[in-house]
Design a protein that fits this description.
Elements lengths: L6 H23 L5 E2 L1 H5 L7 E11 L5 E10 L9 E2 L7 E5 L14 E3 L18 E11 L2 E10 L10 E2 L4 E6 L4 E7 L7 E9 L2 E10 L2 E10 L8 E3 L4 E2 L9 E2 L5 E6 L2 E7 L10 E7 L10 E5 L10 E8 L8 E10 L11 E2 L7 E6 H4 L4
Antiparallel strand pairs: 1-25, 2-3, 3-5, 4-24, 5-6, 7-8, 8-9, 8-10, 10-11, 12-13, 13-14, 14-15, 14-17, 15-16, 18-19, 19-20, 20-21, 22-23, 23-25
Length: about 375
């Protein structure tokens, strides 16, 4: 059948084509931007089990579940009448087990199962001492067949007093979980890593797992990388010295530098991603989150790029915030990466404790979405 267009039809078609072209062009010219994921942030507003805390590191499991790890946390201490919680946390570490990552509408964090201890003392999930002056803060982890390994940064009281009255014991540990029950089946002390905390991120490739670690230098942190055979994470670590892998950690060289001591590394598609935050230890200090990428575990990493400025305020004040963490397993259909960051408090601008009670939202993670193409044009 022949189609014959009259002049008005051609004019109308031209208008439609031009309009659609201009619309697509205008959309393409819109700058990519990160934004607060309010729906995911809302999932941290729980009323039982884990109530509030920092960390929010995720470990994707082979059965579709996600293990979330938190540091100092509040448990079951919210008052439903006024929404406040106790001023002091009840444990040094907690886990949450979330259902399959592709069914967030019915298996979200609000309904995730809390993994915690029973005391005496702090109800920490990972705990191998009755002395609460010694504790673990969990960092990253990974699964190897029927075991899940969680890197536990080991700390003790320093005796200096104040908010930062802690120091490393010098020997971190593996916490080992049986899969799929996630029952703790043991601890393995790691050797001294010359002040490097190698729980900043784990990336499994072929027979090796790359372990990224951070070490403070000045107000920021240097990033290092080691590797071990995935089947034997408790021995045979090798450290990158700038030219090759070797067994002496004192010869390890930094492969990148963060904007602060808050460092996290994961792999997104074909590139290694470093996420870091501005230096902040109190209210109204650093507010920015930065990212850098590298095609190789050993670098070089690109220049740090600012991707987000936090927008959390109370009475005009910004919080003490830290530890932005990327979660590739939750990347959405728009190729937007999920990133969480921790809010600790608004001290000294705003007191954390009033009449023996505290506000949970002042100590809960926040979630944002960052377009992948905003981070790296190769994505």
């Amino acid at each position: 059948m022949n189609l014959i267009y009259s002049a008005p039809s051609i004019t109308w078609l031209w208008i439609v084509v031009v309009t659609v072209h201009n619309s697509v062009a205008a959309h393409a010219d819109e700058p990519l931007r990160a934004y607060k994921d309010t729906a995911f942030t809302e999932q941290f507003r729980r009323s039982s089990g884990w109530i509030a805390g920092d960390g929010a590191l995720s470990v994707p499991l082979s059965d579709g579940r996600v293990l979330w790890l938190f540091g100092d946390s509040h448990l079951d201490d919210i008052d439903p009448a006024n929404g406040t919680m106790a001023c002091l946390f009840q444990c040094r570490n907690v886990g949450l087990v979330q259902g399959p990552a592709n069914t967030l509408t019915t298996n979200d964090l609000a309904h995730a199962r809390t993994l915690a201890g029973h005391g005496p003392g702090f109800r920490s999930w990972f705990k191998n001492s009755t002395n609460d002056w010694f504790w673990f803060w969990p960092v990253c982890g990974f699964q190897n067949r029927d075991l899940v390994y969680v890197y536990l940064a080991a700390f003790t009281r320093s005796g200096k007093g104040g908010m930062f009255d802690f120091e490393s014991t010098g020997h971190d540990c593996w916490g080992k979980l049986k899969f799929p029950s996630l029952e703790i089946v043991g601890y393995s002390e790691l050797p001294s890593f010359n002040g490097i905390t190698f729980g900043t991120g784990f990336v499994q490739e072929a027979d090796y797992t790359y372990a990224f670690g951070g070490k403070g230098r000045g107000l920021a942190g240097d990033l290092y990388v080691a590797r071990f055979t995935t089947a034997h994470p408790e021995r045979g670590w090798r450290f990158w010295n700038g030219l090759r892998w070797e067994s002496n950690v004192t010869n390890a060289v930094a492969v990148a530098r963060g904007a602060s001591t808050s460092l996290h590394v994961c792999k997104v598609r074909d590139r290694f991603l470093l996420t870091t935050s501005a230096w902040s230890v109190a209210c109204d200090q650093g507010k920015d989150i930065f990212m850098a990428t590298s095609p190789d575990a050993t670098g070089p990493f690109s220049k740090l790029k600012k991707v987000f400025t936090i927008d959390d305020t109370v009475d005009g004040h910004y919080p003490f915030f830290y530890f932005p963490v990327a979660h590739p397993e939750f990347t959405n259909s728009k190729d937007e990466l999920l990133v969480t960051y921790s809010i600790n408090c608004y001290e000294p601008c705003i007191p954390s404790c009033k009449d023996g009670r505290a506000i949970p939202d002042h100590y809960r993670p926040q979630a944002i979405r960052v377009p992948l193409r905003m981070i790296d044009s190769k994505w």
